[in-house]
Amino acid sequence: MGAIKTVWGILCVLFLMGPLIVVLPIAFNAGGFVSFPIQGWSLRWFAVLFGDPGWRLSIWNSLIVGLASSALATMLGTLAALGLRGRVGVPVVLARMVFLLPMATPAVVLGVGMQLIYARLGLGSTYAGLIIGHAVLSIPFTLLSVTAALASVDRGVERAAASLGAPPPTVLWLVTLPMALPGIVTGFVFAFANSLDEVVLTIFLAGPNQRTLARQMFLQLRDNLSPAIAAAAFTFIIATICIGITGLWLQHRRKRMMA
Amino acid sequence: MTPAPFIRCDGIAKSFGTTRVIDNLALDIFKGEFVSLLGPSGSGKTTLLTMIAGFERPTEGGIWLDGYRIDDLAPHKRNMGMVFQNYALFPHMTVAQNVGFPLRMRRMGRADAQARVARALEMVELGAMADRRPSQLSGGQQQRVALARALVFEPRVVLMDEPLGALDKRLREQMQLDIRDLHRRLGLTIVFVTHDQSEALTMSDRIAVFNKGRIEQIDTPAAVYDRPATRFVAEFVGETNMLSGRVADTGPDGTAVDLAGGLRIRVRQPLEPGRAVSVCLRPERLHLGGAGVNVMDCRVTDRVYMGDHLRVALDGAAGPIIARLPRSADTIREGEAVTASFAPEDCWVLAA
């Protein structure tokens, strides 16, 4: 029984990791095409990735848009979670649904809609437009994760702070938010990861100057199948793993401190 | 002249939706007094405390502190220290930061604040724990931190919401004495919510007994115990035997009551003949032997050894009765026929 479970587990992991195992070595391919098995080891495609102006711009764009949009989404998601906290009734349920809608809406639909609005507002092909678009997509993640964190903040502790002389904004700043911080950080990490690999909405909203890494990979894939795509994927995966580990570590540290 | 009350609650009513939790309640608390709000859960005692603290507003009536009406005053402006059942410490701050929080809110200088925090922690014997996190302390230690935090800024009133409810019996009794001692030493005004009658009896200057959103009686522990105003108080505070009967006649040397079981007993209170009454008789007022005024023959139906005393169930002309006997009655056996007696002044008669 145990052996079967182990084998099944390994098969599942292989199924999930298989594409990565194939793609990652290609990043170090000495040859000129995305091909497997590889023809020799080289870092040349990383040199292209970090040297070519188009690729470099896309990396910067991903970082700028990712950080800005997740900051915006975290702020708005936290405010929404605070506002909806502990309230009941039809308007509250509706408001929550509206905030979560971007998660259920097809990105294509959202992209078309936003493009139309942006055209009128002059936000098309701008950083601001792209950042707002990504933030809209990320708000559900931050809202959900902050809502869960707030649910574990004891009202009694906030009351205690008030009775000790803290006005409401101080209670929020010194008690509620620090206690919900793990959830806020988790929300930010999710939002950032979400922005990093967002392609569909970006195709609609970004001009050539706002091309993100994911968008650039998509474009290159169609044009010339350069192994730089695999190098980008490799960078991508390493970055995501680092973010994930940082997030887990932060949470673990806080839990150990507060538990 | 009686002094003006320090906290005055007048005509207080509180409804949540259509449920009336507190109804037309009046309560005066004097400076330096330790008042317990005692009652079963859902009797409105915590709701009243919550309104004094400012977390809820009364639906009707008003609350005055030192002559000023405070109904509209936000909790953080009331200068009241509060201790909660689940401690409500700030988990992300150290013990010293927790205790220093109210001083920080009052923008006290760093050196002053540090000295005050150190003194407060010393007072609850936690000086060595200043840099720990609350999660590293035991329940009793956490509650002492909460106590230090509620006292460090010398609040006008200290509110305690079942602060000892989560502690084990031994620790609870120790903390009761500690809090009582602090109350005396610092001259604090304390409003203490509890559902534990022995806790209320041990600690309070006065006890307000709550039932269904009303105060049934407010008086000293001895008066609440010996002269309960209602049947509810008699049964909620301590153990009691309730004997129903009817007043036979009354005179200068007391009153005769005919119990339902046929026994005629004498009590001290003057009462109107013919009236239906309940006689409360505390278990520890019963004695073995026929030397008293009120004597009855009983059979022992149960005996329980309690360590410091013997709890005995008797059945006789007055119906089933519980007696609390001294260890010297150790030889008593189940099924044995005994004579029990009690004095007229140990009976307390209530309208049935």
Describe this structure in words.
The complex is a heterodimer of chains A (about 260) and B (about 350). Chain A has about 260 residues and is mainly α. Chain A has a domain at about 60-225: MetI-like fold (Orthogonal Bundle). Chain A is about 80% helix and about 0% strand. Chain A has eleven helices and no strands. The longest helix of chain A is centred in the first third of the chain and has 32 residues, at about 55-85. The radius of gyration of chain A is 22 Å and the shape is globular. Chain B is an alpha+beta fold. Chain B folds into two domains: about 5-235, Rossmann fold, CATH 3.40.50.300; about 240-350, OB fold (Dihydrolipoamide Acetyltransferase, E2P). Chain B is built from eight helices and 20 strands. Chain B has helices spanning about 45-55, 95-105, 110-125, 140-150, 170-185, 195-205, 220-225, 230-235; strands spanning about 5-15, 20-30, 35-40, 60-65, 70, 80-85, 155-160, 190-195, 205-210, 215-220, 240-250, 255-260, 265, 275-280, 285-290, 295-305, 310-315, 320-325, 335-340, 345-350. A six-stranded mixed β-sheet of chain B has the order 6-7-8-3-9-10, sandwiched between helices. Chain B has a five-stranded antiparallel β-sheet with strand order 13-12-11-14-20. In chain B, strands 15-19-16-17-18 form a five-stranded antiparallel β-sheet, with no helix packed on it. In chain B, a hairpin with a 4-residue loop joins strand 12 and strand 13. At the A-B interface, helix 7, helix 8 and helix 11 of A face strand 6, helix 2 and helix 4 of B.
